[in-house]
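hey so i finally got around to running both of the ones u sent me last week. sorry it took forever, my laptop kept dying halfway thru and i had to restart like 3 times lol. anyway pasting them below in the order u listed, first the sequence line then the structure token line for each. didnt double check formatting much so if smth looks off just lmk and ill redo it

first one:
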Amino acid sequence: MIRKYAVALCLSFGLVAGAVSEPVDLPAPKDDDTCPVCGMFVAKYPAWVATVRYKDGHLHHFDGAKDLFKYLLDLPRWAPGHQRENIQTIGVTEYYTLTRIDAQQAWYVIGSDVLGPMGHELIPLETPEDAEEFMQDHQGVRILRADEVSLDLLEKLDRGEFE
């Protein structure tokens, strides 16, 4: 009985591994918004936009999930004065639907033949089935979840090395 309630609770919060991410409501970047990691104008790449919204409404936009994770994993470097606990929403653009989904719930494929604005990229997908299909269609090497992304992995991705 307790197990049944635990599964229901996990499903209601989207905590089950196969749970579908709900779209997140984040504004599009303005023409002059630049990625805090690489300095590129983000609005030029709408299919790759990732965004962090802080509780006070402050936004940082990125030209892909890779730079988003570089930012999140080294916040003091890229956003001095900002704190992780003040982040309200983190969204990435889903590859197939081009909608913004929760970055923590997305599935990411690395090592594919699809390149983003900064080269090899973490390709965000909404479901594990979409990730598997993308991986087969685009010669992907590995499927990751957000908690598996590390600075070391991102550096390897920049060099075109895949695990």
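and the second one:
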Amino acid sequence: MEKSIVLPAVISALPILAWAQSSVTLYGTVDTSVAYVRAAGQGSKTSLEDSGENASRFGLIGNEDLGGGLSAGFTLESDIFPSSGLGGTTNTNNQKSGVATAMFNRRSFINLTSKTYGELRLGRDYSPSYWNVAKYDPFVHEGIGSAAVRDLTDTGITGVRTSNTAFYLTPDTLGGFFGEVAYGLGNNPQNLPDGTGHDGNYAGFRVGYIGHGANVAIAGGKTTYLAGDVRVLNFGGTYNFNIFTVYGFYQQAEVGGTASQTQSTILLGGMVPVGVNAVRFSAIEQHIHGDSSLDSQQLAIGYVYNLSKRTSLYATYAFLNNHKNAKGGLQETSILAPQPGGNVNGVQLGISTLF
């Protein structure tokens, strides 16, 4: 649930008419869980984890009605790690060298929106291809049941968010069809002697359709690096049969250069409502092209018990099978990674509340 906040000192400094057409909204999620994970060859670990059902965050959304169907606004959103109180990191240039601690690391952009022509965003936001990763995973890419079994290392820089980027989103007047394009800059001098002037430049897209119970989209992105470009292409969707919802997703990620590698991910899953609660489940296959010894499969099932519209309890069980040289972990290897070829089991119990 989102709440509009009023700042008296600010109100007194602004014309009454202008404030009446403007708003600032505070929103967020706090999500914490206890996770027990057992990994072959590494023993077991019990830990307090964050974001098992929803990503813990807080944010501000501002909007001003400019009239004539035009509005201006901003979004500022930050990671929260309730178990430790820490914030998150960002990437300033879409390159390995740009990692930095930031207050609004998740989303940070200004936008201009027209009901007729669509929306322009400038700043940092989710890359178009990541929307498919999150929306077409029953576990919303969070917790030990998520599709984050293992990502190619170099795709992580722009695999979720891109900085220094212009995003264009189509208006909500296309009969259920929608689209997005994005172009980002690495902010390097163009004529660097080592040839890395275009490193961190990003281009991506997403097009899809929502209607008649279906939600489908295809998306892709490319980040330029002298050492080898990173490319991502994915497509997926959900279909709501009323008594249950089916999820499907496919992604191919490629890292170029001398150590080129291509990884494909396939997910099939579902969500079954149980009154106001829900059972969710998924099966995931990850394959490294040319080396099946690095493949892995994951099965996950979970239950969400809604205490209210804002607060829920959840429980998830996941099992990960790694092939001979694979060493994927549940959600993130930081929880507990196995020895190569080892399997992983995990249980996560948590609580999530929205504000």
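quick thing i noticed on the 2nd:
Residues 69 and 270 are 38 Å apart (CA to CA).
anyway thats it, ttyl
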